[in-house]
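Protocol step 4 of 5: obtain the predicted structure for the target chain.
Materials: sequence only (see below). No template structures provided, no constraints applied. The aim of this step is simply to have a reference model before the mutagenesis design in step 5. Sequence pasted as it appears in the construct record:
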Amino acid sequence: MEPTDFQKRILVAVTGLSPQIVTETLYALAVRRTPAFVPTEVVLLTTAEGAERARLSLLSDEPGWFARLIRDYGLPPIAFAREQICVLRDPAGEPLADIRRPGDNELAANLITEKVRELTADPDSALHVSIAGGRKTMGYYLGYALSLFGRPQDRLSHVLVSEPFESSWEFFYPTPYSRVIATRDDKLVDTAAAEVTLAEIPFVSLRQGLPERLLDGQSSFGETVAAAQRALQPPELVIDLVARRIRAAGEWIDLSPAPLAFYALLARRAQSGHPSVRWSDPDIAEAFLAEYRAVVGDHAGELERAEDALGQGMTDSDFDYRKSRTNKALKRALGEQLATPYLIQTQGRRPETRSGLGLEPDAIRFETLEGVDDPH
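Step 4 output (structure tokens):
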């Protein structure tokens, strides 16, 4: 689907002291572009001063440049009110007047990241993100956030305004009629003669390489970037039987005893250079129980139930169930793409299929990581 085909079409922009970015970008998208991308909503990320300027210049009754643009070009209603203006705030909840200190930049990065994550979580939406306004760091964070969470239907751009209009506070968009304004050097120009163009910026989407927890819940800018960087590293698997968890793609994943024991069994085989097994291998049930004992420790009841269940060996259905359950847990924690190197793979055709891990032996470690907390 093209961005114009989506039910929700959201223009996202950062602004500082120049709220004109909103109307200039909207003009370029909805009036000049073919086919037109007419947003159903505008979301603005800005400082306290930027929010006040946007309110007075764009949303007021007079001059009310946002509503005037819609009237001038006969555009359909577009949701844009105070509720769509997201003001950056400090840890105490007070609006930030500007972004100057390192702490301010971190707050801005986190708010922008979370807003983009939230907006891209809706599969029925298409985002058009403008990085033309605000401080350079704000534009950078917004563009980077789209790279982290953006989908095929999302777009990134920068709006360009011809001279001398870009230097005039009175210019908000090219009007379909003559309107004379003064530039900063006191020259008179007609806004009908202005040219506004949109420079679309390609971006690399890293969304498929992010763990599901970062797509589904709040996360800081730094944490999300770190997770994306880890996803680009060679696969590394750490198994901690005592804590009942594994670390894959840098993410800690808690597993219940049975899937963890089954996964540990296959990991040890992969370490030894013999990665694949069959459900009918004579030692498979005992190998599973050995791992299960290491996991449950002194919990005799759990162990006895497992021993009773495998008293006659492991069946084909037992094997497939444990494999499916383990792979499902990995995909749920990491997402399809990030989980792929760590999944239990099947080779061959029934009834001779074999299963195992495709990881290199030196990519697998068994460790008891006492005192190491889950980073999330």
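Step 4 remarks: The chain has a mean pLDDT of 89. The CA atoms of residues 47 and 87 lie 5 Å apart.
Proceed to step 5.
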